[in-house]
Write a structure and sequence with these properties.
Oligomer: single chain
Largest sheet: 10 strands, antiparallel
């Protein structure tokens, strides 16, 4: 199978780029029409276009509202469309400008945060102005985030739109905290690679044609799926200036003639190559995008980097892509071209997989990411193959965003498990963190597999994606157990199968107790939600025990249980565990105020050559 690495390069002539007015206009009152600002921004846009074209790459030009009032910007877009085949598209970023402020009387610029009437008004205004300039409507659009209602309106009113930049991957509390608690864009929980959004929630991929919103969505930047998850994503992406902000480069120097040389950024190239590598897990297809607004390359410099290095990093990034294209290792497309390619290439239920390794710190850490219309999950091999992030897309949660809704800024898709916001395995002296793992117990000793580091190997058989972990040894005082974990994601099933294979036991007759457990909750940030109203149950045939969550530390066990369940009405989710194994006992545990979690689990008995299997299942609950 020939592997294909697809690249989208997106430029926008953002006449009033984010942050730039504060830099260009230092010491002066705010003036969004300042000539120096407009001239510098357009010059940088030209430089970006030249860098792409010089390296044989075509771009998608996302015209901003402000640029539509600039005759030179419009003429440049037309000329590059004719000469290089660049697509002329429309961005819903870059709204702030003199004309916008005078008309709408607001400093808001995130369209998904507007009330619905204003969203419709702005869309019609911007699309109408675009048509006035070019004589046609765009096939592509985008923003940092586009909520489902906004996408639905655009698709209904402007059906030719087929592609959109629709979310930032893990742009949430982590980014907020590293911006001095001032960057109110919360959108954790979405896909990291292109997808077809459902009609009711942009983050959740459509499962079939009936759920299809009508567009192909792409992420705002291709992020490092480990470093970005662990920390601030704005430092770790295929955005050359983000790499400079993350200090992941070697600076160059000014030469006597005023030129700048000697810079290098191996991390950027390694990151691009790691995205290329993901084709091995996605039927020969991999994707990358570069989207850099002109504000990142302004003459005053950014992030302790002079303008010369900002410009050089962009040139060098384009040169690397250009070299890959020359070698036949990359295909550059416009956004509209990519939308057509994606719809021909991918099935609705086909998952996106990523087996990701550390390329910054030299560790052996490895994560596996899985995304389909029913879930997004992360498996951490540094924690024995524990599931450390789980988003229940099966619920297709309706989540209106913007002024006049319950979520003015919070666009994230809620989680059931999230180790960064709800502790994971390594916790405080009291309470528990969210995680899906297992414990082995013998003669009063207990070992959690989350303490057993390992590595994973990916395979695909039919409709199953399988993650086979290297065996680990669990050493008790009187017996040693060699165990191998296999996780299977079956396409279209909304379930994760976990097998614990007991390969060897130092005493072949010894029996070990296994405790498969899932500690979970729900939320979008670090802060606890009200767990009242959740319902826990365990069932065998017609026998069922249940309770409504009330923070009372209650628990229930049932021999031979067929399933143990939690229904979470606030996010319309039903999560359950099922089991196949000897002496199985299903159970649930209610949390308490200091540890507002719930636990579902199974215990059983295993010995050498036996297998203990559980299934984690997700469904919508109304």
């Amino acid at each position: 199978m020939q592997e294909q690495f697809i690249l989208n390069i997106i430029h926008r002539p953002e006449m009033v780029p984010e942050y730039a007015e504060k830099v260009t206009g230092q010491g002066k009152a705010e003036d969004l029409g300042r000539k120096a600002l407009l001239t510098e921004s357009l010059d940088i846009f030209k430089l970006q276009q030249e860098a792409a074209h010089r390296n044989g790459l075509k771009a998608t030009i996302q015209m901003t509202y402000a640029s539509l009032f600039n005759d030179e910007a419009v003429a440049l877009a037309k000329a590059d469309h004719e000469r290089y085949g660049d697509e002329i598209a429309l961005s819903l970023l870059g709204l702030p400008c003199k004309e916008f402020r005078e008309k709408y009387k607001t400093k808001d610029f995130c369209i998904w945060m507007f009330d619905m009437d204003m969203k419709r008004s702005v869309v019609d205004d911007v699309f109408g102005k675009f048509y006035e300039c070019f004589g046609f409507y765009p096939e592509s659009t985008g923003s940092y985030y586009m909520d489902a209602a906004l996408i639905s309106y655009i698709k209904e009113k402007y059906p030719m739109v087929k592609c959109a930049v629709a979310t930032c991957w893990e742009e949430g509390p982590k980014a907020y905290h590293t911006c001095n608690n001032s960057w109110y864009t919360f959108m954790d929980g979405g896909p990291w690679a292109p997808w077809i959004p459902s009609k009711v929630n942009t983050h959740a991929p459509a499962a079939d044609a009936s759920e299809d919103s009508g567009i192909v969505a792409i992420p705002h930047l291709s992020r490092d799926l480990m470093a970005c998850y662990d920390g601030n994503g704005s430092n770790f992406g295929t955005h050359p200036q983000n790499v400079l902000r993350g200090m992941l480069y070697t600076p160059g120097q000014f030469n006597p003639d005023g030129s700048y040389s000697g810079q290098s950024y191996p991390y950027l190239y390694n990151l691009i190559d790691q995205y290329r590598y993901q084709a091995k897990f996605n039927n020969g297809y991999a994707y990358n995008m570069q989207f850099v607004g002109p504000g990142w390359m302004n003459k005053m410099g950014r992030w302790e980097a002079p303008y010369e290095l900002l410009k050089a990093s962009y040139d060098d990034g384009c040169a690397y892509y250009g070299q890959l294209k020359k070698e036949g290792k990359l295909i550059d497309m416009t956004m509209a071209e990519f939308a057509d390619y994606y719809r021909e290439k991918k099935r609705y239920t086909e998952p996106e997989c990523a087996l990701w390794r550390d390329i910054i710190y030299g560790s052996d850490k490895q994560l596996f990411w899985y995304c389909d219309p029913y879930m997004r999950a992360c498996v951490n091999m540094d924690q024995g193959g524990a599931i450390v992030d789980l988003r229940p897309y099966a619920a297709k949660l309706e989540w209106d965003i913007g002024i006049g809704t319950p979520h003015v800024q919070e666009a994230g898709y809620p989680y059931l498990i999230q180790e960064k916001y709800r502790a994971g395995y390594f916790t405080h002296y009291a309470g528990e963190g969210t995680i899906r793992s297992a414990k082995l117990c013998h003669s009063g000793e207990e070992v959690d597999l989350a303490l057993c580091r390992t590595h994973a190997h990916f395979s695909q058989e039919g409709d199953c994606r399988r993650l086979t972990l290297d065996p680990v040894e669990v050493v008790f005082s009187d017996v040693t157990v060699k165990l191998q974990t296999v996780l299977t994601f079956r396409e279209g099933s909304s379930e994760i199968k976990i097998e614990r294979n007991i390969l060897e036991v130092s005493d072949p007759e010894a029996e070990v107790t296994i405790n498969e457990y899932m500690v979970a909750c729900y939320g979008t940030t670090e802060y606890p939600e009200d767990m009242t109203g959740l319902h826990l149950s365990v069932r065998k045939g017609t026998v069922e025990y249940g309770l409504d969550y009330a923070y009372k530390c209650r628990e229930q066990f049932l021999d031979g249980a067929e399933e143990t369940v939690c229904v979470i009405p606030p996010i319309k989710t039903r999560v359950s565990l099922e089991c196949e194994g000897r002496d199985k006992v299903g159970y649930y545990k209610e949390g308490y105020a200091f540890s507002p979690m719930f636990t579902l689990g199974y215990t059983g008995t295993v010995k050498e050559k036996e297998v203990f299997t559980t299934w984690l299942k997700l469904a919508r609950a109304d």
